[in-house]
């Protein structure tokens, strides 16, 4: 799944040319997957608890394979958009199912933590290998070939999954409430759409209205869940101190990570002078250290309280981000590359251990719902970060940029709006005029980056204090099990009220 996501970014120019996709269609091709995935996470996590997690995983794998083939052979942009939406629905079945199955397979807390570390690291590895594999495929085959990379994996899972994976479902879950499903979609889809559009276009009526509509339906969804006998999402899960604390910590960490990642990529390309491929490569050291961190942090959480490991990781990450408050337009790319790598090594303690604690703290029959909450924290946090931190960076840029006099009105308006607009305007100017325009634009953009990094450091430190205090009752993984090594593993503890 991670490879599929990252190869699309490489294939986009090729498929846009071949399918004659316009700018708006290209945006929908890239965004529709995450948009639909986030919208269906809650429904699919609960569905797995009811019909069986293995069954849902097999169905989702088959749908993902079929959707991938449809993407590869899409004859026009509209078909590709629909096929990407199918992939989003399939992805929403796969993520909670895999997390819930890990909780079923590994009841020993230390083993479960290691398994979740491996699970999380696969996404990082997909981000590393996706561009490399995709580049090779695009050099030798047509753009659709990159979508076929996951088909053999999904086919293998459909064949061997029923033999190797255990089935588990909640026999007392009751029927799915269709009204709750509709309310969840009406809450999540407009909210995510509104946030994404506000981040891209600024404060406009339609995205703002979409966000308010989503919030309204979200309130209606929560009220219905507290009222009906078989809720789609048991709201008592959110009142569990461990689950609630983990979700807050993950939201804070992933929101800052999502916003900062966007600004770093812009810095690499528009300030540091790297190509888009080189900018992606500049993130690889951070992805590698992140994959290492996902393996190390569970081991630390087996010796020290997980809340202290997560809080310490966020504090250390915040210290690494101090470098980003000091860079300027002439600092080069290495300070950001090193800071990102250092922060990734330690910061992944929050999402890695947080997901483990969310699923492991839920009753076994609700592990699928808990898995959907964990993944929702990641998806929603990243989307929220793009909107909030992107808006802050843009506002600082507009307030700080001092454009040279004499620019045409249209050019000045575009350049004064964003550093990307300045770069687009500079492309049509003489070298001297372009340099005069880009110098203050880069300085203003870096000022925005410094500001965002400063705010993010404060948020991370606050989240570290919250997690460290709120979840200090959680013992090191495996410590609560005083039974001999050959004793049967204990079941997950029921949710706290």
How would you describe this protein?
The chain has helices at residues 2-19, 23-51, 53-72, 77-105, 109-140, 151-164, 178-201, 205-227, 236-239, 241-271, 276-282, 284-301, 306-321, 334-347, 349-361, 367-400, 409-417, 419-426, 431-470. It is built from 19 helices and no strands. The chain is 77% helix and 0% strand. With 497 residues, it is an all-alpha fold.
Structural classification: mainly alpha
Strand residues, percent? under 5%
What gyration radius follows from the Cα positions, in whole Å? 23 Å
Note poorly predicted spans. Answer: 481-497
The outline comes out as globular
What's the order of the H and E elements?
HHHHHHHHHHHHHHHHHHH
Mean pLDDT: 83
Largest sheet descriptor: none
Distance from N terminus to C terminus (CA atoms, Å) equals 35 Å
Helix count equals 19
Topology:
Elements (H helix, E strand, L loop, with lengths): L1 H18 L3 H29 L1 H20 L4 H29 L3 H32 L10 H14 L13 H24 L3 H23 L8 H4 L1 H31 L4 H7 L1 H18 L4 H16 L12 H14 L1 H13 L5 H34 L8 H9 L1 H8 L4 H40 L27
Summarize this structure briefly:
The chain has 497 residues and is mostly helical.
């Amino acid at each position: 799944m991670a490879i599929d996501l990252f190869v699309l970014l490489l294939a986009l120019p090729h498929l846009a040319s071949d399918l004659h996709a316009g700018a708006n269609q290209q945006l929908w091709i890239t965004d529709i997957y995450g948009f639909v995935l986030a919208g269906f996470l809650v429904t699919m996590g609960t569905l797995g608890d009811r019909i069986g997690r293995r069954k849902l995983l097999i169905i989702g794998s088959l749908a993902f394979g079929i959707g991938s083939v449809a993407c590869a052979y899409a004859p026009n942009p509209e078909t590709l958009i629909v096929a990407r939406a199918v992939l989003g629905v399939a992805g929403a079945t796969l993520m909670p199912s895999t997390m819930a199955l890990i909780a079923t397979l590994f009841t020993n807390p230390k083993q479960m933590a290691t398994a979740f570390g491996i699970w999380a690291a696969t996404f990082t590895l997909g981000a590393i290998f996706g561009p490399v594999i995709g580049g090779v495929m695009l050099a030798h085959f047509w753009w659709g070939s990159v979508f076929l990379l996951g088909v053999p994996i999904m086919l293998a899972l459909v064949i061997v999954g029923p033999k190797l994976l255990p089935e588990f479902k909640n026999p007392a879950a009751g029927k799915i409430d269709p009204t709750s499903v509709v309310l969840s979609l009406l809450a999540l889809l407009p909210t995510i759409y509104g946030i994404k559009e506000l981040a891209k276009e600024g404060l406009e009526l339609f995205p703002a209205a979409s966000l308010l509509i989503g919030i309204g339906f979200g309130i209606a969804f929560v009220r219905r869940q507290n009222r009906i006998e078989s809720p789609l999402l048991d709201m008592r899960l959110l009142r569990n101190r461990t689950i609630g604390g983990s979700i807050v910590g993950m939201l804070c960490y992933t929101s800052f990570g999502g916003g900062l990642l966007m600004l770093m990529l812009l810095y690499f390309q528009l300030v540091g002078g790297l190509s888009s491929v080189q900018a992606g490569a500049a993130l690889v050291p951070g992805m590698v250290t992140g994959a290492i961190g996902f393996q190390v942090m569970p081991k630390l959480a087996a010796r020290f309280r997980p809340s202290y490991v997560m809080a310490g990781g966020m504090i250390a990450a915040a210290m690494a981000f101090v470098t980003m408050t000091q860079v300027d337009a002439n600092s080069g790319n290495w300070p950001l590359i090193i800071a990102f790598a250092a922060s990734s090594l330690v910061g992944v303690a929050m999402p890695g251990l947080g997901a483990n604690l969310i699923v492991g703290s839920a009753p076994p029959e609700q592990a699928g719902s808990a898995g959907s909450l964990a993944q929702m924290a990641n998806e929603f946090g990243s989307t929220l970060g793009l909107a909030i931190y992107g808006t802050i960076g843009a506002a600082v840029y507009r307030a700080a940029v001092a454009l040279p006099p004499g620019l045409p009105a249209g050019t000045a308006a575009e350049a004064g709006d964003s550093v990307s607009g300045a770069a687009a305007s500079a492309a049509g100017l003489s070298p001297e005029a372009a340099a005069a325009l880009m110098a203050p634009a880069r300085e203003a953009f870096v000022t925005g980056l410094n500001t965002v990094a400063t705010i993010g450091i404060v948020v991370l430190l606050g989240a570290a204090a919250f997690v460290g205090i709120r979840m200090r009752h959680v013992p090191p993984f495996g410590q609560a099990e005083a039974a001999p090594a050959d004793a049967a593993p204990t079941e997950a503890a029921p949710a706290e009220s």
